[in-house]
Amino acid sequence: KAANQGNPNAMFNFGDLLINGAHGVTQDLEQGALWMKKAHQKGHPHAYQKLADRYKALNMPVPTEIKEGIKIRGRC
């Protein structure tokens, strides 16, 4: 509920649940990425880094948008 109301921490946590498929939530990388992007847009400082780490763990290329967002936040 808090994620739908715009809480960046809740968006981050929900995105993380979806990305990892934890606590009975079915894994959905696409939806998890959308929630992480929303959290990033609301100012969550770790959302894009967490998402990039997951892409790397899955041996998937990290999208340019995420790389740029991390650079802007000074994490690269």
UniProtKB/TrEMBL annotation:
InterPro entries: TPR-like_helical_dom_sf. This is 60_t:CDS:1. It comes from the Eukaryota. The lineage of its organism: Eukaryota, Fungi, Fungi incertae sedis, Mucoromycota, Glomeromycotina.
